[in-house]
Amino acid sequence: MASSFSLRRLLESLRHRRFTRSSDGDGTVPDMTSMPTPTATTDREATRARLQEHLTGLAGQRLLIGLDVDGTLVDHDGAMTPDMHRMLQRAAEEHKVVIATGRSLGATLPIVEAAGITHGFAVCSNGAVTVELDPDAAGGHRIIDTRPFRPGHALRTLREVAPDAHYAVEMSDGTFRSTPGFQDASFGVQAIESDLDELMELEAVRVVVHVPDLSPQEFSRVIAESGVHGVEYSIGWTAWLDMAAPGISKASALETLRERLEIGSERTVAVGDGFNDTEMLTWAGVGVAMGQAPQGVKDVADVVTDSIYEDGTVRVLEQLLD
After folding, report:
1. Domain locations in the chain?
2. What is the 3-state secondary structure (H, E, C) of the chain?
3. What is the pTM of this model?
4. Domain 44-147+248-320 sits in which CATH superfamily?
5. What architecture is domain 148-243?
6. Digitized pLDDT (tens) for each residue of the chain, 322 residues in all
């Protein structure tokens, strides 16, 4: 691990640069809120042929289908098209559909409710929390698995190199604590303000780190030098980091569910568009990347469908239904 002195020097040099919103072309995930909504330009028949090549033979079998949310089921405004809604409900009736998202539990449940899915499972917080959906349970769900960890060491390291960062800790019950002034809709609940020393002592399922004055490329350099690991992504032109327990991802949670449901690994399908989906896409028997996904995500997928703006997930589910 690099010394604290060299890390601080790196951060200071970055802060004294004139920041721009241009991309260095390093594969950082583009945020959908900064992307113009494209017109439909893909060849639907070509997409259908690609998907058929990889999904032929799966229709009619009992499948486990892992579906990302943002950029896969809903667009950058959080809207789900009528076709997507209808197809998702059909798929949930015929297969085991699992919503698999980086969102917290509180931000996942409204999507599940809007989709009209009342039974099954949802993987939240990038695999750290799994819930079973049950209309007879309090709130329509019960938490069946959490994977907590102690983030103190990582937070101490980050405080050395990014003292102005915002930090939030998600706990197993879905509550959040954050450093002063850090509130975000993605938490799904109002965070309780705490100082960083308090956060270091908590048991977490996820830690969110945001450095508002660094671009994604600059933030990536700081994180790489610090030796802290997690999923990086961008919102607007700034960078965020999600940290979970070592080895925890959407894929690890889906594998636990697959074993519980006794579904063969060859009968698993996953669809996603972000770098926090890469483990899930490689885990699945067939991993499908959305059309707007960064090239690094497409590279690990078995096949690419249309973009969210062209109902790419609908194209996938069509192939999996009788």
Report:
1. 44-147+248-320, 148-243
2. CCCHHHHHHHHHHHHCCCCCCCCCCCCCCCCHHHCCCCCCCCCHHHHHHHHHHHHCCCCCCCCEEEECCECCCECCCCCCCHHHHHHHHHHHHHCEEEEECCCCHHHHHHHHHHHCCCCEEEEEHHHCEEEEECCCCHHHEEEEEECCECCHHHHHHHHHHCCCCEEEEECCCCCEEECCCCCCHHHCCCCEECCHHHHHCCCECEEEEEECCCCHHHHHHHHHHHCCCCEEEEECCEEEEEECCCCCCHHHHHHHHHHHHCCCHHHEEEEECCHHHHHHHHHCCEEEECCCCCHHHHHHCCEECCCHHHCHHHHHHHHHCC
3. 0.82
4. HAD superfamily/HAD-like (3.40.50.1000)
5. 2-Layer Sandwich (3.30)
6. 444 444 444 444 433 332 222 223 333 333 333 344 444 445 888 999 999 999 998 988 999 999 999 999 999 888 999 999 999 999 999 999 999 999 999 999 998 988 888 889 999 999 999 999 999 999 899 999 999 999 998 899 888 878 889 999 999 988 999 999 999 888 889 999 999 999 999 999 999 998 887 777 777 777 777 777 776 555 555 678 888 898 999 999 999 999 999 999 999 999 999 999 999 999 999 999 999 999 999 999 999 999 999 999 999 999 999 7
